[in-house]
Automatic annotation (TrEMBL):
This is MarR family winged helix-turn-helix transcriptional regulator. Residues 1-131 form the HTH marR-type domain. It holds the Pfam family MarR_2. SUPFAM superfamilies: Winged helix' DNA-binding domain. The lineage of its organism: Bacteria, Bacillati, Actinomycetota, Actinomycetes, Kitasatosporales. It comes from Streptomyces longisporoflavus.
Length: 146
């Protein structure tokens, strides 16, 4: 397998582990991601769509499904009524914090078979990749759907 294949399979390993964690909270991976994205403060829907690499319509559908569970709520911005803000409800915030804590605890398990030095290298490289990535906009021209 070449480097691209390895990265592909690494993404599968990460996505599978993340899906298992989300399922433990009776959430889809998309719902878990949405909750974690708004757990600390309200976010503009347009900004969320860009950050998550989703179309506005796909995000709206995801928000509708999550709002039916009373985990998120929409509101107009106080500064500009055309802007829609999304925030976690009190129940959603508690759930988001629990999901986030579980992800932080269990996602590193993907590196459990590495020795201590390789685990530190993996953490360093993963941190560098995230820190140098532009998460404010989609990384491709192909938005994903939930």
């Amino acid at each position: 397998m070449d480097y691209g294949d390895k990265l592909f399979w690494l993404s599968v390993v990460i996505q599978r582990k993340y899906a298992q964690i989300a399922a433990g909270f009776e959430l889809t991976p998309s719902q878990a991601t949405l909750l974690c994205a708004v757990r600390n403060e309200p976010r503009r829907m347009a900004d969320l769509a860009a950050s998550l690499g989703m179309t506005k319509n796909a995000l709206s559908q995801l928000v509708d499904r999550t709002a039916r569970r009373e985990l998120v709520s929409r509101a107009s911005s106080a500064q500009d009524r055309r802007v829609v803000m999304l925030s976690a409800t009190p129940t959603g915030k508690v759930l988001a914090e629990a999901v986030y804590a579980e992800v932080a605890k269990r996602l590193p398990e993907i590196a459990r078979n590495l020795d201590a030095d390789d685990q530190r290298d993996f953490e360093r490289v993963a941190t560098a990749i995230v820190d140098t990535s532009d998460l404010s906009s989609p990384t491709s021209n192909q938005p994903i759907t939930p």
